[in-house]
Amino acid sequence: MAAIIILCAVGAIIVINAALCLYFLYKDGNRAAPQHIDHANSFIQARGTALYDGEGNIIQLKGVNLGNWFIQEPWMSVADVGRFDTGVYTQRRGREAMKANPALTDGQADELEQIYIQSYIDERDFKTIADLGMNVVRIPFSYMNLEKDGRLGDGAFDALDRAVELCRKNGLYAILDLHGGHGSQNMDHHSGDDAHFDLYFNENNRRATVELWKQIARHYRGNRTVAGYDLLNEPRREPHRYGGRINFDYYDALYRAVRAEDPDHLIFIECFSFPVNGARIKKYGWKNICMEYHIYNLTPFSQKTCLNVYRMMHNFMAYKTPVFIGEWNAYGREKDWLTYFRYFDKMGWSFCSWTYKTNAYKYRRDKQFKNLYVRTHKGSENLNWGIFELDMPTVDISSATYEEISKAYRAAKTDNAERSGACKFWRDYLNGQHGD
Predict the structure, then answer these.
(1) If 30 and its partner were Cys, which of 116, 127, 348, 396 is the partner (CB 3.0–4.6 Å)?
(2) What's the first-to-final CA gap in the chain, in angstroms?
(3) Which SUPFAM superfamilies does the annotation name (predicted)?
(4) Of 221, 278, 226, 228, the residue nearest 248 (C-alpha)
């Protein structure tokens, strides 16, 4: 008799859990979101589970990241650091390698960095993005792009201002993404520093990152081309672990710093990596926010299954906010790209794929990076990490001359890149050629 009772109880639990999963899977308030709202304030804003443009019309942001631009990443970089330090390029290590290069002066090192930024993405790239039919770019940068010797100098915002202005000229929104805070929020190379995890527990770094966001918000207050502020990319509660409450508590400090300077812009809050790695956000009292997730499905499960898991978790956590998929990629299969596109449209989720342009040289040849960053399918070498892909040897900035580095950096323009399959998938989708 006891065994029967136990079996019945287990069965009831299974049924209840299945019912809850179905409820959270099909619970979707975004479908009922009004197409227009009153009291628009000229800025992108979150209202309920949807985003609205400056005129109060519902909007879905569809675009791409400008990765590897302000922050080069070692697996797709144009630069290399040879035998300097660990030999793995990061933004911090790259700067140190050039400073230690006996062939360069400090002034030349700074100049070369600007040559790269001006060459890798230029005005024609923004026009290309707009011509594809996208309406937004996410711009990753770090504190190192704005500060020198711990402070904002003259012209600190020049490069970022240029990017925002090119967005305006081409009818695009810009999402400003702090990819690397002081001390690093994740100890990942894409933060610009893979040698430290020293943001949350270092009061000086905490304060410096809060102050940086105050300066950013003050500078871009009133700028309607800026869709919003992505406060901190992929925060971790400790190295190689997903995020948690400590990250959300620090987001609260950043949120309040921004709101003290700018009451209008949308703020993106990242759950890394899954919605359940977040915290109950009601206690913070945040307004005009959008929850952000990054989806790289490297599991045996289908793309749609992965997307459904994110949807269920988001609903389970009762995040009654719009959703922004700030980074994603479907790699080599056109049908997987189509699955993502259709799912995002069905849910009304905004999204930016990773990324606009890469240098594929390392991840096509280097075993270390190929194992980590190449997702190929049988018989396919169409990696599609970038919509455009360079395939140029890296330059060793720890030992090369000014002329050699300058030549390589100037060659990194999109004219020398090939269109990947991702370009076709995007173009067909945004021009309605995939059908329903």
Answers:
(1) 348
(2) 54
(3) (Trans)glycosidases (SSF51445)
(4) 278
Q: H helices of 334-378, where?
A: 334-347, 361-365, 367-373
With beta carbons less than 8 A apart as the criterion, state whether 119 and 79 touch. no
Phi, psi (rounded to 5 degrees) for 274:
-115, 155
Q: Report the distance separating Cα 56 and Cα 43, nearest Å.
A: 9
The phi, psi pair for 347, rounded to 5°, reads -85, -15
What pLDDT tens digit does each residue of the chain (436 aa) get? Answer: 554 444 444 343 333 333 334 444 555 545 679 999 998 899 999 999 999 999 999 999 999 999 999 999 999 999 999 999 999 999 999 999 999 999 999 999 999 999 999 999 999 999 999 999 999 999 999 999 999 988 998 899 999 999 999 999 999 999 999 999 999 999 999 999 999 999 999 999 999 999 999 999 999 999 999 999 999 999 999 998 999 999 999 999 999 999 999 999 999 999 998 899 888 888 999 999 999 999 999 888 999 999 999 999 999 999 999 999 999 999 888 999 999 999 999 999 999 999 999 999 998 888 878 776 766 555 455 678 999 999 999 999 999 999 999 999 999 999 999 999 999 999 999 988 654 4
What number of CA atoms fall less than 13 Å from residue 144's CA on the CB side? Answer: 23
Give residue 371's region: left, alpha or beta (phi > 0; psi -120 to 50).
Answer: alpha
Amino acid at 312: M
CB 90 within 8 A of CB 194: yes
| β pairing state of 289-295 and 50-52 | unpaired
Q: Which of 337, 324, 341 has its CA nearest to residue 30? A: 324
Look at strands 136-142 and 173-180 and give their pairing.
parallel
Are 80 and 131 within 8 A, CB to CB? no
DSSP calls for 269-308: EE-SS-GGGS--GGGGT--SEEEEEEE---SSS-HHHHHH
- Alpha-carbon distance of 144 to 151, in angstroms, equals 10
As given in the structure block, the two tokens for residue 144 are: 């190192």
Residues written for the chain: 436
> What residue spans of 392-436 are helical by DSSP H?
402-410, 421-430
Contacts of 304 by beta carbon, 8 Å cutoff, 6+ apart: 339, 343
Cα separation of 130 and 135, whole Å?
7
